[in-house]
Records
---
Amino acid sequence: MTNKIAERVSRVLFSAEQISKRAHEIGEQISVDYANGAARDTQRRPPLLVCVLHGALVFMADLAREIPTEVEYDFISVSSYGNGTSPGAVRLVKDLERPIEGRDVLIVEDIVDTGYTIDYLRRGFAARLPASIRICTLIDKVARREIDVQVDYAGFPLEQDAFIVGYGMDYRELYRNLPFIGVLKPEHIR
Ligand code: PRP
């Protein structure tokens, strides 16, 4: 019997190599897009990457290192209430540390699913008057969307409704440290 978590996965959906390649492509695209904006405004500060804890931590770390131009970071943490009485209700657990007025904000997510979390963040940030807000997600579960949110950079669209773990995503707080994204074997789901 082994304790290796990789052996609890029945199927790899996105390998470490696939994710790395996609992160590189998106990083280059982000760099080009924001450089074009900055060229029109020499006073403009670098884009602010906002990592949505905890799931986006791994993607954010890799993506940021694939952007060859200036960026700054901040971190936010939210939680879904997850009870049947208020579907989609999102609660702020940890706010940003700095103001975002006038900043180009790029929200970095591991996954956009129903869209409630990103909608909550986008509306909350918009009230703080940033220069722009864009959304980047590694996994875009378009088929599950309940709120119409615009994703600007998506790593991989995912049509199937598989429960996925790894590369930041958890099941009961485990498996975030898998270097790939996969589907858990049913016997490891309680
Ligand atoms: C996940 C993910 C997004 C959110 C997306 O976070 O990181 O923030 O769910 O779901 P939605 O589009 O249906 O709102 P989760 O609540 O699992 O917390 P975690 O990031 O700490 O794992």
---
Amino acid sequence: MSTTAHFRPHPVAAFDRIGEENAFAVLARAAALSAQGRDIINLGIGQPDFATPAHIVEAAIKALRDGHHGYTPSTGIEPLRVAVAADIHRRFDTEIDPGRVVIVPGGKVTMFAAILMLGEPGAEILYPDPGFPIYRSMIEFTGATPVPVPIREENGFGFSAQEALSLITERTRLVILNSPANPTGGVTPKAEIDAFVAGLEKHPQVVILSDEIYDQFLFDGEAHTTLLAYPEIRDRLILLNGWSKTYAMTGWRLGWALWPEGLFEPVRKLAVNAWSCVNAPAQYGALAALTGPQECVAEMVAEFDRRRHLVVEGLNALPGVSCAVPKGAFYAFPNISGTGWTSAKKLAAALLDEAGVATIGGPDFGLYGEGYIRLSYANSAENIRRALERMGNFLRDVRAA
Ligand code: PLP
């Protein structure tokens, strides 16, 4: 018998430390249950349930017909980088250099690049907890030490400047911020960001990654505070944004980032090494998204707002559940500590298996997520009502595990 038949390749140790996003596992489990004939309502996945607006789709189709099927510059097509800068100017009255904009295959790629570039053993990286799970996963992958910045319900799920600043040491290389936030829907008040930026003066070695992918998902007339508004940190700010959420384009795999001068060449080279460029017709779709009518965004956000009220009212009527009103994104993060369920992940699993409602346990977003579950309200009002009814019946009938 050949010995080669038993050879089992294995990756370097860093891959023992890489994590993942449980939302995809929940999506797979929900799909498997649906395939068995179960009626599953999915409030687990974080993507708009709207279709990409037709003019964006048409622009991408036209790009293919016009022959845009080859490689593009690795940082993205010039008109798109210029359109990103124009959009930022329109929305925030702030100038950014299109020459520092990098178009990437998904907002996630920017966090991958930033953490890879600044993380190494001995370095410390601060990240929000609960927060998007890929932050911690990538920090651990690089061998850097992940330092969670607790995101607390009593702070309206906003980032605490004082707490974050107190965690910075001389080994801190990067601080990650995310507002409006996943998974909590929290929005960090401007005063808190002012205080954080002021405190950074004492820590000139720290780079900031501001994940503003939900910047248009704000309610009650709230204005977005972008880190671009602080010229004093522009030389060390990586601004992450993209089209996935704003224009319902998650599957197109598109994002953009603004990079500071010192990190631009490294990210450009990483692009050349890893993905060459973003899919050319998708970039033309993205261009149409930024230069075309914006009513589609406002309409989608208005619909999310209606659902937000439905979800929060419904959750607060459930036994043992209390839900703060999320100010942004499209997630609710109810506190389930009064239900008797001490494990939010077990509750989320039981809700899926027994009540047919997919949600995500708070601990999938970090240790400080215990006691909460995340519901994405990217589903129809009708389905949200049905899901809340099922959750109510379940919580009344089933004793906590
Ligand atoms: N940042 C946050 C906070 C997110 O929630 C997500 C997606 O869920 C992303 C970034 C990544 O977005 P993309 O699909 O563009 O990679």
---
Amino acid sequence: MTDTELEALGVVRDAELAPLTTFAVPARAAYLARVESVEALRRVLSSPLAQLPRLVLGGGSNLLLTCDFDGLVIRMEIKGIELAADDEQGRTLVIGAGCGWSETVDELLSRGWGGLENLALVPGTVGGAAVQNIGAYGLEAAERIVSVDCINARTLEERTFDVSECDYGYRTSIFKNPEYADWIVTRVALRLPRAFEPRTGYKELAALFAGAAPESPLQVAEAVKALRRRKLPDPKVLPNAGSFFKNPVVSRVKQRHLLEDMPQLVSYPLAGGRAKLAAGWLIEAVGMKGARMGRAGVYERQALVLVNLGGATGAEIKALADEVARKVWLRFGVKLEPEPVIV
Ligand code: EPU
């Protein structure tokens, strides 16, 4: 395609991706398209660029690039918050996939609309939240999602997935399934309850409120923000992608064996004879909290978070992640799975 044709589509050639990701590791994209509307996205997807390997970027906060991307990167920048329903039980909002998640939570709170306060300050976009079912402090995005609007990158079909079709689980959805890789999320409908239903069961949050019921969603949001600031590095200061590993799910039998050896292990029973282990605890137990390899590090206040200490490459961070996982595997026989998408 000619430069004029690319320009008309809002596409640039040979673009640096580091500033578009929170790990800030260097990597270039052969083509970068920033799309602000479904129509603009359609135009890009109708062009010859659609034949290339494709990577959709939201806030770039759940991504580790370990090499250049010889294809088309689509930066989702569809914005807008639309009030689709407002009734006695609650409100339904249709939000552009490119809206910042944290900014959206704050905007809704400023209108006095609670329901997402436990997910305050989570980086990334609304689209990313719907793809990976973000969760923190006792709430998962899937609990508020009603439906997800998508466009198919190959057929250009537009479709609304009801939440029941999204197959939501812990940090996962149908949109992470390779069979659904052609569906690009464009808008997300969220339902917020009108009544304030404070959720302060999460241990650290409960400790902050110490038995006193919070008065408003804003107050819960402030508490969550304080907790996050205490434990999680600000990507603008110390580039990172939040938790680098998922908390592993094991059988109750395995949990019991581990607890016999280490009664201090932090773990939670799940339904169906399973249990979730605190990966941060396991990483700390193998002595990797605060460890460094090259310019990559394990954050000293939360072992689940890997950080770019300055000038790290994606490969360096990946090497550290592999070393952390290897140590946990050797010591506990537990497999740690990365949470971010690794390219
Ligand atoms: N722990 C340690 N050492 C550590 C880190 C944690 O012993 O270095 C222990 C803590 O003491 C605690 C337990 O592990 O008893 C759980 O720790 P924490 O409450 O910090 O939560 P987490 O399981 O480490 C998860 C999410 C976070 C989310 C928090 C709060 C995952 C992979 N991570 O972390 O999500 O903010 O709970 O709900 O599920 C993210 O996904 O990017 C993320 C930051």
